[in-house]
Structures are given as structure tokens and as C-alpha cells.
Amino acid sequence: MIEITDELRNLLNPDSAVAVLTGAGISAESGVPTFRGEEGLWSKFRPEELANVDAFMSNPDMVWAWYQHRREIINEVGPNPGHHALARMEEKIHDFSLITQNVDGLHRRAGNKNVYELHGNIQRNKCIDCGKFFDKLPDEASDKVPECDECGGKIRPDVVWFGEMLPQDIIHRAFEVAEKSALFFSIGTSAVVQPAASIPVMAKQAGAYLVEINVEPTVITSYVDLFLQGKSGEILPVILEECGLA
Ligand code: BV8
Ligand code: ZN
């Protein structure tokens, strides 16, 4: 039984400014592996081995194959009830912002529009030399890094790797909406990767009621106003129901 506080019930209404930060946990029930769980993508590898420029430059085919593997998984799955609940929230709440660390595109597929993809999107690729974007790849299935048809440069996933800056316009908009929110949800994130992990803290410091939804406590759990332990795909629909937004 999840405990919906009066504050949450009062704040989750169509006229509140609501913002959400999601991480890999919200896609777990869709079948997309998280990063740090036991079956996590990185249980076999470590972030520094794959999600950074040096790894790509020193072993491009291995990094490229890892992203192809992840794309295959993502292309096989769909949004789960947690994603759909957030899409429903955006339909019902006039001022709703969804900030995500995920690169799987599942929030948009569930119907959310006002989505801030802090770390890019795994379905988009770009040339590392001339920056040309590629929505379609020369050979969709190849595990070899494709080459740019303009300049011959290597093509990489359009995601933010460790050590790379986040898109400045997006991160600043995310800070803004967090700071003006009356209610902020941190959902399915271990809250360790910066600067994304500081966003829920900023929201609370600016006066938001901070709710965390996670199957286990995280480094911010002791700081939040309400910790709802459990699967986001199960908890979010209940919250909508209890707050009359279903
Ligand atoms: C930058 C895209 C600087 C690519 C990703 C030392 C201290 C502090 C910071 C640093 C440091 N050393 C380096 C840094 C900076 C570094 C960082 O934060 N490192 C960490 C590891 C300490 N950050 C960066 O490098 C960032 N850039 O700082 O640039 C700069 C400044 C100026 C000029 C140049 C550079 C860039 C970070 C972005 C990296 N890219 N992803 C890709 O996807 O391949 S990170 C990747 O991991 C995700 O995008 C996500 O952001 C991150 C964390 O993962 P989560 O989403 O939280 O997932 P995780 O598996 O960890 O947790 C899942 C959670 O869900 C768990 O809590 C689990 O319990 C829960 N869960 C599971 N199932 C469910 C569930 N919850 C609910 N329901 C369920 N069913
Ligand atoms: Zn090019």
C-alpha cells in the first residue's frame, strides 16, 4: 500500500507547476536494462570503458556494437504503465515538464511532448568530424562504425558521453523548470551522475515538494519529502488514481 500524503494530493492538480526527472529505472519494466542493476548494462562493462570519447576513438567498433545492441533492445520494447502515467500527467497538468536522463525515446513514444533529453537520444547519430546528423544509417544493422558520406568521418550515437558537456540550452531549461516547480518527482534514478543528479535537490531548495519513486533507497532518499518505494510502473498509476487524474 503506498502512502499518498496530503501535500502530494494537494499539489498534484491541473494548476500546479509539476516537473519530473527520470532515469533508467522507469524503462526497466519495459525490458530496457538499467546501468547499475545486477543485470545492468555496465555489470559486464564499466562506464569508462564504453560511454566516453576515448573508448570510442580507441575501440570504435566495440562501442558502436554496444550501442547497436542497445538499439536492438529498445526497438523491441515499448513504453510501460509508468511512461503512460507520465504522459497522462502531461495531458492533465497545464504546466508539466519531463526531464530525462534516458536516451531510449520511450517518453515521447508514450506521448509526452515537453521532454528534455539531457543526455541525447540513442536513435540519432552524427559524424564526429563534420557533425552531420544521420537519422538513417548507411547500413542499419552493421556492427562496424559507419562512415560519414560527406567527409568520411566516423559516425557516433548522438548521446552525451562521460566528460562531455550536456546541451547547454536543455540543461538550463531543466534547471529553470525544476526551480519553479511546486512539485518535483525523481523517478527511477540512482541520482549519482552529475549534473542531472543535482536537479531534484535544486527543485527542493527552491521550494518544491520532492517525491522520489524507486525500488530501493538512493543517495537522495534521506533528503526527499516523500519516498515511495516500489516499481514506477505500479506506483505512478496509483498516484494518478488517488489524485483524481486517471
Ligand atoms: C560532465 C548517456 C563536464 C550515454 C550517460 C566525480 C564526482 C562527480 C561528478 C563526476 C566525477 N567524475 C566525473 C564526473 C562527471 C560525470 C559523473 O557524474 N560521473 C559519475 C559517475 C560520478 N558526469 C559527466 O561526465 C557528465 N558531463 O560532467 O561534463 C564538463 C564540463 C565542462 C566541459 C566539458 C565537460 C556527462 C554525464 C552523462 C553521461 N551519459 N548516458 C548512454 O546512455 O550511453 S549517463 C547514464 O547513467 C544515464 O544517462 C544516467 O544519467 C546515468 C545514471 O543512470 P540512471 O538513469 O540513474 O540509472 P541507474 O542504472 O544508475 O539507476 C537506475 C535506478 O532505477 C536505480 O536506482 C534502481 O534502483 C531504480 N529502478 C530499477 N528498476 C526500477 C527502478 N525504479 C523504479 N521502478 C523500477 N521498476
Ligand atoms: Zn562528416
Explain the overall architecture.
- The structure is a single chain.
- This protein has 246 residues and is of the alpha/beta class.
- Helix content is 37%, strand content 18%.
- It has 11 helices and 9 strands.
- Strand 7, helix 10 (198-205) and strand 8 (209-214) form a beta-alpha-beta unit.
- Helix 9 runs parallel beside helix 10 (198-205).
- The radius of gyration is 18 Å and the shape is elongated.
- The two termini are 18 Å apart.
What does the average pLDDT come to?
Answer: 94
Main beta sheet: 6 strands, parallel
Give the termini distance in whole angstroms: 18 Å
Give the CATH level 1 class of the largest domain.
Answer: Alpha Beta
Number of domains in the coordinates?
2
**Beta-strand proportion:** 15-25%
Envelope shape: elongated
The percent range for helix content is: 25-40%
What multimeric state do the chains show? single chain
**Would you tell me the structural class of the helices and strands?**
alpha/beta
Based on DSSP secondary structure assignment, what is the total number of beta strands?
9
Rg, nearest Å: 18 Å
Note the total helix count.
11
Listed once per kind, the bound small molecules are: ligand BV8, zinc ion
- Compressed to H and E, one letter per element, the order equals HEHHHHHHEHEEEEHEHEEH
Q: Write out the strand line-up for the largest beta sheet, numbering strands in chain order.
A: 3-2-1-7-8-9
CATH architecture name of the largest domain: 3-Layer(aba) Sandwich
CATH topology of the largest domain, anyone? Rossmann fold
Detail the poorly predicted runs.
Answer: none
CATH homologous superfamily descriptor of the largest domain: TPP-binding domain
